[in-house]
Amino acid sequence: MSGGRPLLSYISGQECLQTRELWEEVFCEDTEQFTDYYFGVKAPENEGFVLKGEEGLRAMLFLTPEKMQVFEEKVSSAYIVGVATRKEWRHRGYMAQLLQQSFHLMYEREVPFVFLMPASPAIYEPFAFRYIYDRPIWEAESLQMEKMEVLGPAYVGKIAAFSEKVLQKTAPVHICRDAAYDRVLFKEIEAQNGQVLGYLENGGLEGICLYTCEEGEADIQEVLAMPHSEEKFVTRGKEKKPCIMARIVHLPAFLGLLRTKNAEEGFSFVLQVEDDRIEKNCGSFLCCVSDRGCAVSDFDGQNDDVSYFWKGTVAELTERVFGYERADADGEHWQKEALWERLRLLNPVWINEIV
Questions:
Q1: Mean pLDDT for the chain?
Q2: Residue 5 carries which DSSP code?
């Protein structure tokens, strides 16, 4: 095995296709059909970073650009995928280098936050990633196939419009759906030996179900339905699975998404934030918030109209603003803190995309 310090490089588009060998080595559980789909459809749209030595590729990280709907706003974000290091080069801090470079790139673009689906949360917690979304689990064996219709290309755009209609009411923080999203969706479900199924009632679309059957194992990736329609064709389990972790990147842009919960008179608060990965996020920030927006500036300690003062890490702030439930050491839920009770938190979240 050759030694030496690896070269860190930015890649995008067709350059991402050169990583397939490492992808197949590390993500060996993926079927050949799904890998073909990923490198034929998704990878060419990505950017990312790689570490190369004289002997070849050692580690990689992809950034899939995503447009997020956050209540009334559309926000640029990135889905971190394909984080992989060749076995013989692990435990050398390569992943940390790739993540750090990604943070710098996203900060320069003023991206509020990035997200990922962790193989293990312990890997990403030191980088201030925290869970923001638990995925529902639907019972595949409960799906009443006789009530479902296979949706084909004629429904491109219609599925997205229906999904947006449902999500705006139930989970206003989600990846934007449009016709382009639907076209990729059909290819992804086909790569998993599945179908996009629709529940039609009274002549209209009342529910959709993304059904897959890779290697003979049936699974339901997502169900979206109008109120009281889901229970007519599938059963949702009582348990949820922690699924998506997020990390604040450009703190001022992230804080700018805050709004008051009610149409009340605005107020000001100060956040003193610590971030050991992104130095520019460290400091005290004055936030002047209303139901129309949040103006963010550096705090000089001279404002007498501050209603609240909060101090914590960027990871703790992620949990607060996304409203992800957890209890403190005394068993009390932190949402009871007065500041977070008055703000419209960034939830419910809905992110079921695989890659």
A1: 94
A2: P
Give the torsion through C-alpha atoms of 293, 298, 304, 306, to 10 deg: 40
Residues 6+ apart with CB under 8 A from 129: 116, 118, 121, 245, 246, 247, 315, 318
> pTM to 2 decimals?
0.94
Co-location of 343 and 255 in the same domain? yes
pLDDT digits 0-9 by tens, 10-52: 999 999 999 999 999 999 999 999 999 999 999 999 999 999 9
Tokens 């990147």 found at:
249
User: CATH number for the domain including 290?
Assistant: 3.30.1050.10
Q: What is the pLDDT of residue 101?
A: 98
Q: Which of 111, 131, 162 is the last residue of a domain?
A: 111
Same domain, 205 and 288: no
- pLDDT, tens digit, 9 for 90 and up, residues 62-72: 999 999 999 99
Total structural domains in the chain?
3
103-121 residue pLDDT tens = 999 999 999 999 999 999 9
Same domain for 37 and 104: yes
Is residue 175's pLDDT more than 50? yes
Whether 297 has a pLDDT exceeding 70, the answer reads yes
8 Å CB contact between 30 and 215: no
Judge if 162 and 89 occupy the same domain.
no
How high is the pLDDT of residue 326? 56
Are residues 72 and 15 part of one domain? yes
> Cβ distance 149 to 198 under 8 Å?
yes
Asked if 118 and 245 touch (Cβ cutoff 8 Å), the reply is yes
